[in-house]
Amino acid sequence: MMQEGFSKTLRRAYRKNRYLRMIELPHYETGLRVIYSDLVTPERTGLPGRPKGPIQVIHEDLDYATVHKVRKDGQVVQVTRQIVFGTDTSIEKRLADSPSVAINTA
Q1: Domain-by-domain residue ranges, the chain?
Q2: What is the dihedral of CA 16, 18, 19, 22, to 10 degrees?
Q3: Tens digit of pLDDT for each residue in 26-61?
């Protein structure tokens, strides 16, 4: 049930502007991988043995970036952005097309 709610929230956010900015939490990447990917089954080789299983292929138009904050004594001393899905060029293009000028560091 919780995964279903999480999926709906991610879908709604992504459908809105096709670019996601979220807190850096590892389960977000896993959730996005599940929601925005297709299972592709490789063609059979004709050789003996077990055929290869399906491969999870992430949608090409998925752009997802996080902001990593380094804190010292409760103060933010360094902020770096990390691109999880997409490319630097695609992230920059999405930022240019959106009201934001940078990846949200809130």
Answers
A1: 2-97
A2: 50
A3: 777 888 888 888 899 999 988 999 988 999 998 888
